[in-house]
Structure to design on (323 residues):
């Protein structure tokens, strides 16, 4: 089956006065139609930059310096701005962390939704309104006719995020990129939003890239997980395989750091040290300065992903047997 989107050796750099920051380093990932992929890692690992780069929303001085993003047979990484507009928000939609950064506070929900439709589809205003109402119902917004006339400040945080999801569905995209979509919401609302995304992926047969630092969330929603560290994929594979039997020492550290892993009144586990600066990456494996299992080779060579006998791809010399 042909992939919906295939990321090949993607590299994203930021040219700063202090030097080149390589935020995404030779990342390769594949997502099929209807598949749900989670991208996890610490803050600064490059998760959001990877998501933005897929729809070419990286602000200067950042830019894609190498690699391909093949979407339905075309390399959209090389699309000019105007051509990319036919993809962004249309075939590929994005849901951001804060809905108030997406919604215009001085326009009604109806106006904003119709503007999105008219930007990508040639339909009448009446047809556009019918599409708006249909999508609001799909995300379980009560009294959708009334909601179209209201402003963003009249909604709760959870309702605003539902509206943003409805907007992302307006053009029936093939892929949704959700960047920490529940960060600003309380736990109960978080669960409702994630259940909604899961349901929509199944009913609409959409692909989903869920970007988050929360392994508990991806374990409930996604089918596969890619673990990012310092801009590089260190482990990727089936969700249950990675949650139940992580191979890379970094993935093991993330799972051990979950509150439920501590139990009782024990102190939370944590990974010692900090992720290295992307301006001053150490030689060898980027995780070696924090790794409890490092071997001599880790200080000089950079490991690449290999097929683990346990079902995942792992970038670790120790798991390769020190070869």
């Amino acid at each position: 089956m042909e992939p919906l989107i295939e990321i090949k050796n993607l590299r994203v750099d930021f040219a700063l006065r202090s030097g080149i920051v390589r935020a995404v380093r030779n990342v390769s990932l594949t997502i099929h139609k209807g598949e749900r992929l989670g991208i996890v890692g610490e803050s600064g690992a490059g998760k959001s930059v990877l998501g933005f780069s897929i729809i070419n929303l990286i602000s200067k001085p950042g830019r894609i310096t190498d690699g391909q993003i093949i979407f339905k047979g075309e390399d959209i990484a090389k699309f000019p701005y105007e051509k990319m507009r036919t993809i962004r928000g249309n075939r590929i939609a994005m849901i951001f962390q804060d809905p108030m950064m997406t919604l215009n506070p001085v326009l009604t929900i109806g106006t904003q939704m119709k503007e999105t439709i008219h930007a990508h589809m040639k339909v009448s205003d009446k047809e556009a309104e019918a599409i708006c109402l249909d999508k609001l119902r799909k995300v379980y917004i009560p009294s959708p006719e009334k909601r179209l006339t209201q402003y963003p400040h009249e909604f709760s945080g959870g309702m605003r995020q539902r509206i943003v999801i409805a907007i992302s569905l307006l053009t029936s995209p093939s892929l949704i990129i959700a960047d920490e979509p529940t960060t600003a919401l309380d736990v109960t609302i978080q669960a409702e939003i994630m259940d909604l995304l899961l349901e929509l992926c199944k009913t609409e047969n959409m692909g989903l890239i869920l970007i988050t630092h929360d392994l508990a969330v991806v374990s409930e929603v996604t089918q596969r997980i890619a673990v990012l560290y310092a801009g590089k994929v260190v482990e990727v594979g089936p969700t249950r395989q990675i949650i139940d039997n992580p191979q890379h020492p970094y993935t093991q550290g993330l799972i051990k750091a979950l509150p439920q892993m501590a139990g009782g009144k024990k102190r939370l586990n944590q990974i010692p040290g900090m992720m290295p600066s992307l301006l001053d990456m150490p030689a060898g494996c980027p995780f070696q300065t924090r790794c409890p299992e490092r071997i001599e080779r880790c200080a000089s060579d950079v490991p690449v992903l290999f097929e683990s006998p346990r079902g995942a791809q792992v970038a670790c010399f120790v798991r390769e047997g020190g070869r």
